[in-house]
Design brief:
Helix 7 runs parallel beside helix 13 and helix 10 crosses helix 11. Helices cover 42% and strands 12% of the residues. The chain has 19 helices and twelve strands. It is α/β, with parallel strands linked by helices.
Length: 417
């Protein structure tokens, strides 16, 4: 039985986003975990009770059909023991134990990968900037890594391909899931001139909790992350947060301060991210740190002269039904009255004194961490002790809660409700 079966068994038991570094330090590889006794696994203190139960109830042999299915579809399974496993990804606290790939996996060893992220409902201006920046960044020698979604992601991938370069799309679903059908042609092009990557096995549907887990891979396999148009609760800020935790560089394109969808990007700049006005701003430091990897002569004409490879039409958005509200004349003429406490509680959920309820659809770990969060900020170690979870799983859970809008990240990597 090949080594992939052991890693698939272990990933299934530990779950995506788990703190694999502790396990790797204790056992070295998946086969060693399988060969260990239940007592040895338990006393290592790197597995949760749920993970230990999952290990006992499964076997590497169970994953032979999945391996055959991947082989039949041309999908490549990478593990930490694989030659093509992304080297930068090995250094993060929670590297994926298995990556399912379609395309040129040798690209995962590119010396200059750069993550580009932003909102899905991006304005034409932001999509144009993302596209032109990625044309120049690719021409200068970088490899664009993004999430394969609509908006900024698509514009970034299109820019890389237009520059006759390659690109990596990190997905939050299985390779076979028809998520965002509008982007199916782009994903096909990336699989033919780049590589699709996902931690999630075939058949995994698009769920909200998958995407923050996915985001740590975008930042983890990149030298830096460039954020283009992000609101205050954008998933792009979660990616930027992962980048900071992983020791990666963070860049942001400034936006109009009068537009709320730029608040996240501008906040990053205010907190220390490097503002970007051209590809040169991204690459000048890398040219000094990694001589010969990038060509600065091709990085300074981004906004004025780089051609467009996207259509002016806005990114497709979901249509929402509009409610027609009839206002009686006497109601419209009522004098202004300040908000009551009840109205404030509705407008600002952090003011309410009602019992807090974890959002529907959260994982078990996120539910546990939600119960431990307080108004006073706590660090990940405090939350880990309160929930009896490894720190890596706590960080993944907090990120999930951030995406749901029920957790806040304070300075110093501390978290509150």
């Amino acid at each position: 039985m090949g080594t992939a079966a052991y890693w698939l068994w272990l990933q299934n038991a530990m779950g995506p986003g788990a703190n694999a570094q502790e396990m790797l330090a204790a056992f070295g590889n998946a086969r060693a975990v399988w060969n260990a006794t239940p007592t040895e696994r338990a006393v290592s203190a790197v597995f949760t009770p749920r993970q230990l139960n999952a290990m006992r109830s499964g076997s590497p042999k169970d994953f032979a059909p999945l391996i055959r299915r991947c082989a039949a579809n041309g999908w490549i399974i990478l593990t930490p023991e694989s030659v093509d496993y992304p080297p930068l990804l090995r250094t993060i606290i929670n590297p994926p134990l298995v990556l399912f790939c379609q395309g040129e996996t040798e690209l995962l060893h590119h010396p200059m990968p750069l993550g580009v992220v932003g909102t899905r409902g991006a304005s034409y201006r932001s999509r144009k900037i993302a596209n032109r920046l990625c044309v120049s960044l690719t021409g200068a020698g970088t490899l664009i890594v993004s999430g394969g979604a609509l908006g900024v992601d698509s514009a970034a991938h299109e820019g890389a391909l237009a520059a006759l370069g390659k690109t990596i799309a990190v997905l939050g679903t299985g390779l076979d899931v028809p998520y965002l059908m509008e982007n199916a042609p782009l994903r096909k092009r990336i699989s033919e001139s780049g590589v699709l990557v996902t931690e999630f096995p075939p058949g995994t549907a698009a769920m909200s909790r998958n995407f923050p887990i996915r985001n740590r891979i975008i930042s983890g396999m990149s030298r830096g992350v460039l954020v283009i148009e992000a609101g205050e609760r954008s998933g792009s800020l979660i990616t930027a947060g992962f980048a900071l935790e992983q020791g990666r560089d963070v860049f942001a394109v400034p936006g109009d301060i009068a537009e709320s969808h730029n608040n996240g990007s501008n906040k990053l700049i205010r907190e220390g991210a490097k503002p970007v006005f051209s590809a040169y701003d991204v690459l000048e430091d890398y040219a000094r740190r990694f001589p010969g990897l990038v060509n600065l002569d091709r990085a300074d004409t981004v906004l004025e002269h780089a051609p467009d490879y996207i259509q002016p039409a806005e990114t497709p958005r979901k249509k929402r039904s509009k409610k027609v509200v009839t206002v009686q004349k006497d109601e419209a003429e009522q004098p202004y009255v300040p908000f009551s406490e009840v109205e404030l509680a509705v407008a600002d959920p952090y003011r309410t004194t009602k019992p807090r309820v974890c959002p529907e659809g959260c994982s078990l770990n996120a539910t546990a961490v939600f119960g431990a969060l307080k108004e006073e900020a706590q660090d990940a170690d405090e939350l880990a002790r309160a929930c009896s979870l490894p720190v890596g799983e706590v960080l993944a859970a907090v990120t999930e809660l951030e995406l749901f809008g029920v957790a806040r990240r304070a300075p110093g990597n501390r978290f509150s409700i």
